[in-house]
Design brief:
Elements: H1 8-15, E1 32-33, E2 35-38, E3 46-48, E4 51-53, H2 55-67, E5 69-70, E6 73-75, H3 78-87, E7 91-97, E8 107-122, H4 132-136, E9 141-144, H5 148-156, E10 162-165, H6 168-176, E11 182-186, H7 190-196, E12 204-219, H8 225-241, H9 243-251, E13 262-265, E14 273-275, E15 278-280, H10 282-294, E16 300-302, H11 305-314, E17 318-324, E18 333-349, H12 359-363, E19 368-371, H13 375-382, E20 388-391, H14 394-402, E21 408-412, H15 416-422, E22 430-446, H16 451-466, H17 469-477, H18 484-487
Parallel strand pairs: 1-5, 2-6, 2-7, 9-10, 9-11, 13-16, 13-17, 19-20, 19-21
Antiparallel strand pairs: 3-4, 7-12, 8-11, 8-12, 14-15, 17-22, 18-21, 18-22
Helix pairs in contact: 2-8, 10-16, 10-17
Length: 489
């Protein structure tokens, strides 16, 4: 088993071997020879008798043909493959998860697969999980002792419903028997586990992604840049004409393949949220419209803000939405917009005698509840606030405020009604104290994305505003919004 009982660092290293890379459909000017190294990691790469196959392997073979590349594919232990790639020229290591530590050590083509460490429920169970806070309320989550997946939940905090098991098969049986409502696992290995216990793969469904890793082909630094461009172009061509999707579905039939762009958002109604199993919201609909106009794949992924934000900072060609454009973030992304406007407000519990008239007054209270990595938290951090207590879920801030664990909490006017309702309260339970900022929010494209592609998105948004679709989408969710400034009127 690829992700076994090991510490976080060891597991993260193991996860670096999970997905193939890219290539071009145009004829290569000359044949090149490379050495291709991978590990046994079904269904991405594996041995079947004398044959090496799998989603990543077959993709690499298709890309070799498209780029005029020759070479052998070897299946090794991951540690051996990694060592070879660090000491051998003209080598491609796959499947490799892109991490900050490895980003500058290789040249990257992809993404070729998506690894989700997620929460799974029985297929017939009606449970809905759109946030980690909803997962904390579940009747038991099956975990595997000391696995990376278990450590992810423990690191988030507040999970007192974890039910530890000795192995993945035992955890899967507990889920299918109804002993727990959820199981945390990754999408690559769980199908193999279900096969091993004689269960149908369709017996479970993923209800939430806790962490996401995109896999690539990692080329050694000596490989010419023209070769990297040829392989990436070939992969993009396969994605554009459907061949990549067809290959992906052969090996990962229940998964959404990574497109030329990775569209990612969070539960943040009415801007972005999950509705009847489908991402919705007025910015989600705008992103879909732009992607459709430009001929990109329509595959929106909903996860936690922390996970989405980390993906957009690490990978090129990630579309993160929506994001406040702040000085601290200015150089982290390319900005498309604005697509909306809101105010950040400090709230107290209704009936609390606290009166806040300035940021200095807010600085003096014992605790302000914030949402981790949201611009509202970053706004206060940038001004030297040392009384902040963050949580991944904004509803936790409401609960801490109402329980007296925090004197203030910070939210935006456009989203606070939904957040308060989800926490089990109403707006009457909160008292607005101070408007600390008024900002625009945007669609953010990650750094490393082709500037020409960024320009296309900006032009497409302007067309959306000019032809009336922008206003039509916005008013479906917020009928009384004032849009003059956003429309440039």
């Amino acid at each position: 088993m690829r992700i076994s009982r090991c510490g976080y660092a060891v597991l993260l290293t193991l996860m670096l071997a999970a997905g193939p890379l890219a290539s071009d459909d145009h004829q290569a000017p000359e044949t090149t020879e490379l050495s291709f190294l991978t590990e046994h990691f079904p269904p991405l790469s594996m041995r079947e008798g004398d044959r090496v196959t799998g989603q990543a392997v077959e993709l690499v073979r298709a890309l070799m043909r498209a780029t005029g590349t020759s070479g052998e594919i070897e299946v090794l232990e991951w540690s051996d493959a990694l060592a070879r790639s660090q000491n051998q020229a003209n080598t491609v290591l796959f499947s490799t998860v892109l991490t900050p530590e490895r980003k500058d050590a290789f040249q990257w083509v992809g993404p070729t697969a998506v690894l989700h460490t997620g929460l799974y429920a029985r297929a017939e169970h009606p449970i809905v999980i759109n946030t980690l806070d909803q997962a904390r309320a579940a009747e038991g989550i099956a975990t595997i002792a000391d696995y990376y997946s278990e450590q992810l939940l423990k690191a988030e905090g507040g999970f007192d419903n974890l039910r530890q098991h000795a192995g993945e098969e035992e955890a899967a049986r507990a889920l299918l028997a109804g002993e727990v409502e959820l199981m945390i696992a990754d999408n690559a290995t769980l199908p193999q586990v279900l096969d091993a216990i004689g269960a149908e793969r369709s017996a479970v469904r993923r209800v939430f992604s806790v962490a996401t890793d995109l896999t690539y082909l990692a080329f050694t630094p000596d490989v010419p840049a023209a070769t990297i461009e040829r392989w990436q172009a070939a992969l993009d061509a396969m994605k554009a004409d459907g061949r990549f999707d067809a290959l992906y579905q052969q090996w990962l039939p229940s998964e959404i393949p990574p497109g030329r762009l990775y569209l990612v958002t969070e539960e943040y109604p009415p801007i972005t949220f999950m509705r009847e199993g489908t991402p919705a919201g007025f910015v989600t609909d705008m992103v879909r419209a732009i992607a459709g106009d430009l001929g990109f794949e329509d595959a929106v992924h909903l996860t936690s803000w922390k996970n989405a934000y980390n993906l957009a900072q690490l990978h090129p060609n990630v579309v993160l939405f929506s994001a406040e454009r702040t000085p601290a973030r200015e150089d982290l992304f390319h900005w498309i917009g604005p697509v909306g406007r809101n105010a950040a407000i400090l709230y107290s519990r209704a009936g609390n005698e606290v009166a806040i008239e300035s940021l200095e007054g807010a600085r003096a209270v014992p605790t302000i509840a914030t949402t981790t990595d949201w611009f509202t938290e970053q706004f206060l951090e940038a001004r030297g606030f040392d009384n902040l207590e963050g949580s991944p879920d904004p509803a936790d801030s409401v609960r801490r405020l109402m329980a007296g664990e925090a004197t203030l909490a910070i939210f935006t006017d456009i989203t606070v009604p939904e957040i308060v309702a989800r926490a089990g309260f109403t707006l009457d339970d909160l008292q607005p104290q101070l408007v600390v900022s008024q900002t625009d929010f945007y669609i953010a494209l990650s750094r490393g994305t082709d500037p020409a592609r960024v320009a296309q998105w900006r032009q497409a948004l302007e067309r959306l505003k000019a032809d009336g679709r922008f206003e039509s989408i916005y008013r479906r969710y917020l009928p009384n919004a004032r849009l003059e400034d956003l429309l440039g009127q």
